Amino acid sequence: MSGMQTETLAEYILVEYRWVIVITVLLPMSLLWKIWSTVRNYIVFKMNSAPKMHDKKVKDVQRQIKEWLKGGRSTKLCTARPSWQTMSFRHALYKKTFTNINVNMVDVLEVNTKDLTVRCEPLVTMGQLSRTLEPLGLSLPVVPELDQLTVGGLVMGTGVETSSHIYGLFQHICVQYELVMPDGSVVTCSKTENPDLFYAIPWSYGTLGFLTSVVIKLVPAKKYIRLEYHPYTSLSELSLRFRQESLKENPHQFIEALLFSKESGVFMSGDMVDEVGVDGKLNPIGNWYSEWFFKQVMRHLKNWQQGKRNTVVEYIPLRHYYHRHTRSLFWELQDIVSFGNHPIFRYLFGWLMPPEVSLLKLTQPETVGKLYDRAHVIQDMLVPIDILENAIECFHKEFEVYPIWLCPFKVFNEPGQLRVSSGKWQMFVDIGVYGVPKAKGFETVSSTRRVEEFVIKNKGFQMLYADTYTTLEEFRQMFDHTLYDKLRNSLPYCKDAFPEIYGKVNKSVRK
């Protein structure tokens, strides 16, 4: 970050010594917030008070929308949640000019152990859900790994996890949505009730209605994940293994890979088990003093390169595995606290990690934002799994950012914005690129646009939390707007209340 021009002493300190602010201010604040929210959520769930309050909160959303209707509908609508509280590293400019609707819904409403479903409000986080469900021996089929990802964000945007090659995206494990519509009415939708709305909500980015609750499928859970590590020093061999394992008739329950260079990486496959076996050791990777997970994976690759060719098997506690990338925010935290993985720091301060992304954004000076624009890539591109190797070549040429996260997932042939070529489903891969690009000639807009063109050409998709440099025409080529447009035209006041999706995600409305 050095060399960036700053206007004030405070901004200079925030840029050059951001790690000091993170350690002395943000980590203690994050800890207090985590303790308060955990205790509060536990008490509310145990007292079963959330369902009684839910209807009141829904009525309050209705009241706010009816006031907007009476006021002449002169502005668009959005949630009042500040953009610094979201997981995206960007700020939404439209929040300043839209009418902000307060949708303060943070509770797990009901766990139905008979039907194996959980009903929760949109601001419930993945960490909150996994913590609530674990004592019941239950889990979501798809648990996106960062603690602070919310149900609402994963529905309106999308979510993927290493079990998605079996269950699909987060939207595919949702069975019912409750929304307050732009005319102030409350609507529930499912595959059999208001199905058009049900299929159009995912990826709609809050442009059809305000989500107030979601019913999600559950599966029985076991205590551990038996995880195998398979290092590779050939992209073609790793890609082949990745495709074959993802497309097996009876695949492993969890599949992912980390690439540490264009030709080297580690393929990982896991399954739930109840006991630690004799073929591996227990590795509680979520303990506060534990080495960051991606660093552990990198060590397995180095050992392989040094001739230690035995297959490594580890047994990881279930929640530790689900949230394995949380403490290091994948690998983004190493650019903010460069010594965060040092053993001394981990043992002394690891229990404070990670800082809340929301607080990082809140204290981010404009200079840092400009630096992210110019020299940082945060993208998840979703492409058919059969072009994985070509996609990596493209990403290497345009970005050269490592590690790269690879996660396979099914897209089911259902109505909505995602298309499949044929059949009941098609296997895709999420290519997650987060970090400082080292590619020669990298330029944020032109390089990203070339990657977007590659994705569109190969009938892939771009996650909406990231910067989108496509034109409106290209965006509509990437996503199927047929059902979405039908609803926008038929739902009362919808066009008055919300912009199109593109109007909330393209780079010109974010900073």
Automatic annotation (TrEMBL):
Domain FAD-binding PCMH-type intervals: 45-221
Claim: Transmembrane is one of the keywords in the record: yes
Subcellular location: Membrane
Spans traversing the lipid bilayer: 17-36
Any GO BP annotation: steroid metabolic process
PROSITE patterns xrefs: FAD_PCMH (PS51387)
Protein name, entry field: Delta(24)-sterol reductase
Protein's organism: Parnassius apollo
